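DM from R.C. (forwarded with permission)

"hey, sorry to bug you on a friday — could you get me a structure for this? deadline for the figure draft is monday and I only need the backbone to look sensible"
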Amino acid sequence: MKKKDLKKAIKEKEIQLSKLEQHIEKSKTCAQVYDNMLMEKAILNKELQDANKNKFVERVKKLIPHKKTLICDYFKQ
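My reply, with the result:
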């Protein structure tokens, strides 16, 4: 999906969530639908974040070895 489509879908989910939020306490079905919508919105947000990342830079970061910090490194002076 394109960034524009993702943003539009996220806005739609937010509107649906705001409508469902009023009925969460009334029934379990509404609460389950609300939870599912919340998960779908989170997935869309993650897809939008991934679309914004520079894929070339991410590949280069994976190739470059990182020095891991050990606990003993904090106590060295």
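R.C.: lifesaver. The chain has four helices and no strands.
me: no worries. Helices lie at 3-21, 28-52, 55-63, 71-75.
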